[in-house]
Design goal:
Length: 97
């Protein structure tokens, strides 16, 4: 299975940003899906040019860059299933005996 390259854009250290980071960590910590992620958190206060370069219109925003197509999810990522479906990320199927 190929690696997914995802980036979470946040604006500062707000409660919503912290919740999105925690939810992303929980998704990536899942042994069934986490091994397939290369995740990065970007604080746009520290790297403001990325907001324009990446066309970030709201935060927090999770962007799947690879594999194509690019997908975007806005919000705190609290609904894990919607996040996985929205980014077209699926855990590997269970192994058969």
């Amino acid at each position: 299975m190929e690696k997914y390259t995802i980036r979470l854009y946040v604006l500062g250290d707000t409660p919503v940003a912290r919740r999105a980071i925690e939810n992303l960590r929980a998704i990536c910590a899942d042994p069934e899906v986490g091994a397939h992620y290369q995740a990065e958190v970007v604080n746009l206060l520290e790297r403001p040019q990325l907001a324009e370069d990446e066309r970030i219109v709201a935060t927090p925003m999770l962007v799947k860059h690879l594999p194509p197509p690019m997908r975007r999810i806005i919000g705190d990522l609290s609904d894990r299933e919607k996040v996985l479906i929205g980014l077209d990320i699926h855990p590997p199927p269970p192994e058969e005996d």
